[in-house]
């Protein structure tokens, strides 16, 4: 069968439905890679709803309480032919302003925004943008908005899924979760249509599942948490209590056996803040105590830290480069019977591994070749690996997978897609820690995208070193958009800087194997065996090179092989021709030749780069007539370009010279070479001038912007100073008011003491009631008379049985409360006599505000009065008896 490995492959990697607007906003993970300058000062809550969603929305906003400091964006599946009245229907259940988005709209807090019919909506730079829906294909407006929300607002994002059919919102939920936002879903038992809630819950990435009423209350509590009112509260607490951070990592390791010490602190702290706020803890210490006794929360924190968003054919440009260039070169450089080995570390739920498998399968089918392809997809999250191994994905992956691939490599099952067996067999899923475990070897391709950004610099270099050791010569490494090779960049050649595609430079020797002491004895044995085999092959190669070098030195004229920058790669009998200049050592050929010769060689190399022919010229080199020839060399399977430069002395016989073979002779005078070089230099100078002018203009623009920024900062500083003065003034006023309050409290305390002493010394019992006859205060004497206890304070008088005083007591009190006319009555009690007086309580505005009942002891005065009356009677009786006696006389 003919080898068709060079046959181009058709590229179906173009969107087959409405494009995802989040692509332009880089919806991939950017927790540590991108800036947060677009994040608003308040949370943005995206709510996705479809069939049955109106009732859920009404219940949600009816229980949200006072307008929270947040913006709400409602995304629905709307009919393009009917006018929506959602604003009027929701206005009955909330006082938060509601409006349809009609044009680019800057998001404001305490506002509800509605998507209009016939439109998709995204958020970008803190503003809402509309995009008209074109065509009748599958449209997923909730996924589109949630992905843009995750990219733009990151940790400020909240995604809520309410009642609806289908699976729209599921992929968007994953993006929001990965960006550090919160995800909430209506309980499927309370949803009229549970398709969307169930699909989202099945991802395992939902923070809260409740009824709409409970979701509203949970959201209100979440927004009030210091996570939003005091950004970085967890970081501040950890900085003061490092042992708490260490304790959290120890708990995670104890339960899940994963060491997070090499993860970036910022990543872990961001996830930690979210878990603390979700569980309503106000400090890290309490949350640590909660972790110790709650394994379920440990698992939730573990999954939050490990979240990695992935999707089929994520980033169109990268997969287009893979499809067009990388995969063909991998097969082209391998034998038909060779095994193609690929490693996808941090594979999450497997979409990227399956995407690569599909492209490789497609290439083999189109070129009628059949290599054994093994794709090792690894992760430390066993739950994600189990999901990936099943190979069943929600229906909305159709927005990411081209139609051609859907029909060929997927089968529809219910509401989702099942990966076909021929693709499933190409992928091997395994649990593997890319930082701690040894790498896979003999690899043709490693795709590690957006994993390195979560680990620290030391771990990154260790992992990249492992990648370099695991790759075959000319093996390909694919990184994420926010990742770089760092100090190990010299170990790779850059093939596509934008797509972050690199090729292993085999001449670079990584010290990775010398640092593998933590690997097991079995793996070290394997490595040693591989090293021995490599050493054997190297000895054979060295012998061959030695033979070739002797042949070259014996038969070939002085020659040099240089790269595209004229750096010497290899020399043959050229020691006598090259001169080493004083100063810093340089391997550049032009620096090691006489000036006139270097001009000619430079010109030849430049001209040879434009043709496959041999270019030649003559020169007096070291006082000898020399023919200089140059030929471009492009090794098979290598995109690099090299040049062979030969210096051959012209041998004269008589008056004739022996002609030298040349495909294209160049016998121009040296002055022509100088003229050509001068023209080239003038062109370079002109380009430099233009670049310099552009740089100067850009610098001037930046200067103006900086000046404007400086003026704004000066104005802001003045405003802050003014505000500070106002705050100082307010502080002084508060201090004065506080002093007045202190004095008032002291006066009230003194008056209360005086009152208590007065009542105690005058032996007057008092009972205070408010206008509703609620007992406010009672003295001890009044307690003894009425049996009303101090514990009855706060109770209505009418709830007590007080007929022991006298029948009609309660009615007398009510009558006085109504008529404001006093009531007095004498009461006998325990052999004593009291005057009970019921009067209205008059406040400082002379308004009746209750009742005062007083009991004055009349016993002593009554006894004195009786004694005085008796004495008077006795005195009157004596006079009466004496009068008849005198009359008789």
Describe this structure in words.
By secondary structure, this protein is α/β, with parallel strands linked by helices. It has 24 helices and 32 strands. The strands form 7 sheets. A 7-stranded parallel beta sheet has the order 3-5-2-1-8-9-10, with helices on both faces. Strands 16-12-11-17-18-20-19 form a 7-stranded mixed beta sheet. A hairpin with a 2-residue loop joins strand 26 (652-653) and strand 27 (656-657). Helix 10 crosses helix 12 and helix 13 (316-332) crosses helix 14 (351-367). The longest helix is centred in the last third of the chain and has 93 residues, at 670-762. It is elongated. The termini are far apart.
Task: Describe the structure concisely for a colleague.
Helices cover 43% and strands 20% of the residues.
Number of helices: 24
Query: Mean pLDDT, nearest integer?
Result: 79
Distance between the termini: 177 Å
- Specify the helix fraction band: 40-55%
Overall geometry comes to: elongated
Strand content: 15-25%
Uncertain segments are 1-10, 14-35, 512-532, 653-668, 885-889
């Amino acid at each position: 069968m003919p080898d068709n490995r060079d046959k181009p492959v058709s590229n179906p990697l173009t969107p087959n439905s409405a494009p995802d607007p989040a692509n332009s906003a880089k919806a991939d993970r950017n927790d540590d890679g991108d800036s947060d300058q677009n994040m608003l000062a308040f949370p943005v809550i995206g709510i996705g709803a479809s069939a049955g969603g109106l009732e859920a929305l009404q219940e949600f906003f009816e229980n949200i309480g006072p307008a929270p400091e947040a913006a709400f964006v409602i995304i629905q599946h709307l009919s393009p032919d009917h006018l929506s009245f959602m604003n009027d229907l929701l206005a009955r259940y909330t006082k938060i302003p509601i409006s349809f988005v009609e044009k680019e709209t800057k998001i404001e807090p305490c506002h509800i925004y509605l998507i209009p019919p016939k439109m998709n909506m995204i958020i970008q730079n803190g503003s809402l943008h509309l995009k008209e829906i074109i065509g009748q294909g599958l449209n997923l407006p909730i996924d589109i908005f949630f992905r843009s929300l995750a990219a733009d607002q990151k940790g400020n994002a909240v995604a809520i899924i309410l009642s609806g059919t289908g699976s729209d919102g599921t992929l968007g939920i994953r993006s929001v979760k990965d960006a550090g936002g919160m995800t909430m879903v209506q309980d499927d038992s309370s949803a009229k249509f549970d398709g969307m809630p169930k699909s989202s819950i099945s991802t395992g990435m939902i923070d809260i599942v409740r009824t709409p009423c409970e979701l509203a209350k949970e959201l209100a509590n979440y927004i009030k948490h210091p996570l939003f009112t005091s950004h970085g509260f967890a970081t501040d607490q950890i900085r003061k209590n490092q042992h708490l951070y260490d304790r959290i990592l120890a708990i995670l390791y104890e339960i899940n056996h994963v060491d997070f010490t090499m993860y970036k602190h910022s990543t872990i702290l961001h996830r930690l803040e979210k878990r603390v706020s979700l569980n309503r803890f106000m400090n890290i210490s309490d949350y640590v105590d909660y972790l110790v006794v709650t394994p379920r929360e440990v698992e939730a924190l573990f999954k939050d830290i490990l979240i990695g968003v992935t999707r089929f054919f994520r980033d169109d440009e990268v997969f287009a480069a893979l499809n067009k260039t990388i995969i063909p070169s991998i097969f082209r450089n391998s034998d038909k019977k060779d095994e193609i080995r690929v490693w996808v570390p941090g594979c999450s739920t497997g979409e990227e591994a399956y995407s690569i498998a599909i492209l490789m399968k497609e290439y083999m089918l189109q070129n009628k070749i059949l290599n054994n392809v093994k794709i090792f997809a690894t992760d430390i999250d066993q739950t994600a690996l189990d999901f990936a191994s099943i190979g069943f994905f929600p229906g909305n992956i159709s927005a990411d997978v081209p139609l051609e691939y859907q029909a060929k490599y997927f089968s529809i099952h219910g509401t989702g897609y099942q990966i076909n067996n021929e693709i499933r067999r190409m992928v091997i899923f395994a649990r593997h820690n890319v930082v701690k475990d040894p790498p896979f070897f003999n690899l043709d391709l490693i795709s590690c995208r957006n994993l390195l950004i979560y680990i620290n610099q030391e771990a990154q270099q260790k992992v990249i070193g492992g990648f370099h050791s695991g790759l075959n010569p000319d093996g390909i490494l694919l990184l994420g958009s926010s990742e770089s090779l760092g100090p190990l960049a010299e170990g790779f050649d850059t093939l596509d800087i934008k797509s972050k595609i690199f090729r292993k430079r085999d001449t670079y020797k990584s010290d990775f194997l010398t640092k593998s002491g933590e690997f097991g004895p079995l793996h070290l044995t394997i490595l040693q065996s591989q090293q021995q085999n490599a050493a054997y092959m190297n000895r054979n190669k060295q012998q061959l090179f030695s033979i070739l070098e002797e042949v070259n030195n014996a038969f070939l004229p002085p020659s040099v092989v240089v790269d595209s920058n004229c750096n010497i790669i290899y020399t043959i009998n050229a020691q006598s021709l090259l001169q080493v200049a004083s100063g810093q050592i340089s391997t550049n050929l032009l620096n090691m030749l006489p000036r006139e010769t270097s001009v000619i060689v430079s010109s030849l190399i430049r001209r040879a780069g434009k043709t496959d022919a041999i270019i030649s010229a003559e020169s007096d080199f070291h006082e000898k007539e020399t023919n200089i020839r140059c030929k471009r060399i492009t090794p098979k399977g290598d995109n690099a370009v090299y040049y062979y430069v030969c210096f051959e002395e012209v041998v004269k016989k008589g008056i004739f010279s022996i002609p030298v073979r040349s495909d294209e002779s160049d016998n121009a005078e040296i002055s022509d070479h100088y003229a050509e070089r001068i023209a080239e230099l003038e062109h370079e100078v002109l380009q430099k001038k233009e670049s310099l002018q552009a740089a100067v203009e850009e610098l001037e623009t930046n200067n103006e912007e900086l000046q404007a920024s400086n003026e704004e900062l000066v104005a802001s500083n003045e405003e802050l100073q003014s505000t500070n003065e106002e705050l100082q003034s307010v502080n002084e006023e508060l201090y004065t008011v506080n002093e007045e309050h202190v004095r008032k409290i002291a006066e009230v305390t003194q008056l209360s003491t005086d009152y208590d002493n007065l009542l105690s010394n005058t032996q007057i019992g008092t009972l205070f009631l408010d206008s509703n006859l609620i007992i406010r205060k009672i003295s001890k004497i009044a307690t003894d008379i009425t049996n009303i206890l101090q514990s009855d304070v706060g109770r209505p008088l009418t709830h007590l049985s007080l007929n022991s005083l006298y029948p009609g007591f309660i009615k007398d009190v009510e009558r006085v409360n109504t008529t404001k006319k006093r009531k007095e009555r004498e009461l006998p009690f325990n052999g004593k006599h009291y005057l009970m007086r019921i009067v209205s309580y008059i406040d400082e505005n002379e308004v009746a505000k209750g009742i005062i009942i007083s009991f004055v002891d009349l016993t002593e005065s009554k006894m004195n009065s009786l004694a005085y009356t008796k004495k008077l009677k006795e005195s009157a009786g004596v006079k009466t008896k004496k009068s008849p006696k005198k009359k008789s006389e």
